[in-house]
Design brief:
Layout (H helix, E strand, L loop, with lengths): L11 E4 L5 H14 L3 H12 L8 H11 L11 E4 L3 H4 L1
Parallel strand pairs: 1-2
Helix pairs in contact: 1-2
Length: about 90
Amino acid sequence: MAGLGSGVTCNAICPALIKTKLAIELIEKATKRWGVSFEEAKKRILSTINPSGKFVTVEQVAELASFLCTPAADQITGAELPVDAGLWAKL
């Protein structure tokens, strides 16, 4: 069991909508439900979930995870790290 001084940290990366198969399916369903184009449905969904209007990228999440594995992040533990394009700031 890891304890004090063990060097083990635990953090949560909390991404907003990432361009995945599931996200694309969500947008495709919205096009049918709302009777709009794929681009319009994507714009509506992203503006609600990702205030930047863009998908969070897998690379952005991976870079943060990589950073958390470096000595520079040794003192970051118990943190919730949003990669949410400003959603929490908007709320």
